[in-house]
Amino acid sequence: MYKQTLCVTLPISAAVIIAAALFANAGDLNPPPGDIGPTMHTLDEIYELAAAEQPCPPCTWEYWYGPVQGTTQAILGEALLHGVWISPANGDGFTEAQLWDGHPDDGGVRVAAVVIVTQASGSIGSQFVQLDVHVENGLFLTPSGQTPTLTVLYRSTNP
To answer: Rounded to two decimals, what is the model's pTM?
Structure first.
């Protein structure tokens, strides 16, 4: 019985393997003509591709730094915000800074709020909050809680 099963199973298995080998195609294994070169892009090429995807003519990275007391104007005109470093005051409590597109008293729109909690033993240090926010009417900041110091990283789109 064992020999009979083996005599039937072995040829069928061989036929299946041969058929699979005939239908399997690895494609063209020859490299394309020409010199072989690296496939990795330089950082400059990556930045150029990113700039082509999101154009920002005359754009340069800039930053605004200062304490936020009352409504503070940080940036004039149109800009792309990249992030905010917030440094809280010492003491127990919280610090919040709201970011506005245009002056809040003149119909400005709140675009973000960054919050940091301080401890009784002192400041927990600066924190970076990444933002990808576009403002058209200038950036204004309003604090609540303790007075924070902010550094805003942005790209100006003003000509």
So the answer is: 0.56
Mean pLDDT on 44-53: 62
- Under DSSP, is residue 158 helix (H, G, I), strand (E, B) or coil? coil
- Give residue 14's identity as a one-letter amino acid code: A
Q: Residue 146 pLDDT > 80, yes or no? A: no
CATH class of this structure's domain 60-156: mainly beta
In eight-state DSSP terms, residue 118 is: E
Each residue of 117-134: pLDDT tens digit?
655 455 456 677 778 888
Rounded Cα distance between 46 and 122, Å, is 42
Longest dimension (CA), the chain: 95
Domain boundaries, given as residue ranges, for the chain: 60-156
Q: What string of DSSP letters covers 5-70?
A: HHHHHHHHHHHHHHHHHHH------SPPSS-----PPPHHHHHHHHHHHS--TT--EEEEEEE--S
